[in-house]
Design goal:
Elements: H1 2-19, E1 24-27, E2 30-31, E3 38-40, E4 43-47, H2 48-54, E5 58-62, E6 67-71, E7 77-81, E8 88-89, E9 102-104, E10 107-111, H3 114-117, E11 122-126, E12 129-133, E13 146-153, E14 156-163, E15 171-173, E16 179-187, E17 191-196, E18 200-205, E19 211-213, E20 230-234, E21 238-240, E22 246-247, E23 251-254
Parallel strand pairs: 1-12, 18-22, 19-23
Antiparallel strand pairs: 1-2, 3-4, 4-10, 5-6, 6-7, 7-8, 9-10, 11-12, 13-14, 15-21, 16-17, 16-20, 17-18, 20-23
Length: 256
């Protein structure tokens, strides 16, 4: 009788586990149906199509090479292939994240951290919901980051909560032919770390279309640009709002 009772408890536990709701994705606290999170090798993945569409983005599946293109019809252009941990933004060099895209039950899944690390959105997890906070949101039920300051009025202290600037999320559309001057602080095979005199640190990716010139206007190999060089940079049309921001420049000119 005891063994039978234990078996019943065990079966009840299994049934309870099977009906537990899996974590889902949300955009600005609006839960998206059919977006259950799966976990593989400690990495949380989500189905990319319904989330991209909830963000107002277009998504295209290219069967010939098992690749995906996500775009907003403008400068935002993200691409990746199934099984390859290499994601591109605009025409940047491929960047690895926590895991490669996978197909589960005929659906494409990508790691959750891409929404913060590549798309530069705030991502919060609470009560089995992973919430993406967009820069376009006007009102949200939860504030992802709050700074507390203290004001003193008539001898009394008042605590004031200030939300983070929402312009710090997503992508910035730059002015056409926007230029900057600055200095190279680091460089490798894929990127140049550029200290923009006005913006601060910007990561310049070595995309295939970026042109590099010397001070006389002669085209040069972009890989000859090294630490300490002074540059004039013509930015590409989109820049991530991450810290530091990432841009695929139209051209780079060594000024000295």
């Amino acid at each position: 009788m005891k063994n039978k009772f234990l078996c019943i408890l065990a079966l009840t536990g299994i049934m309870s586990m099977s009906v537990m709701a899996a974590p889902k994705m949300a955009v600005d606290s609006n839960v998206i149906e059919d977006t259950e999170i799966v976990e593989q090798a400690g990495i949380k993945y989500f189905p990319v199509r319904p989330v991209a569409e909830a963000l107002g983005l277009s998504i295209e599946w290219k069967a010939e090479d098992k690749s995906v293109v996500i775009t907003n019809g403008g400068p935002l252009y993200v691409t990746f292939r199934i099984g390859e941990n290499a994601y591109t933004f605009a025409k940047t060099a491929p960047m690895p994240f926590s895991g490669a895209p996978v197909i589960i039950d005929s659906r494409t899944y990508i790691p959750v951290d891409i929404m913060s690390d590549l798309f530069a959105f705030d991502v919060m997890e609470k009560d089995d919901v992973i919430n993406i906070v967009t820069k376009y949101q006007e009102e949200i039920t939860e504030v992802p980051s709050v700074e507390t300051t203290t004001e003193v009025t008539s001898g009394e202290e008042t605590t004031v909560e200030a939300t983070a600037d929402e312009s710090d999320k997503g992508f910035a559309d730059l002015e056409e032919n926007e230029k900057a001057t600055g200095t190279v602080t680091d460089a490798d095979d894929e990127k140049i770390t550029f200290e923009d005199a006005e913006r601060g640190t910007v990561i310049l990716t070595k995309g295939g279309d970026t042109k590099a010139y010397d001070k006389d206007g002669n085209e040069i190999d972009i890989n000859t640009i090294t630490v300490g060089m002074k540059l004039s940079v013509e930015y590409g049309p989109a820049m991530t709002m991450s810290i530091p921001p990432i841009n695929n420049p139209v051209s780079i000119t060594v000024t000295e």
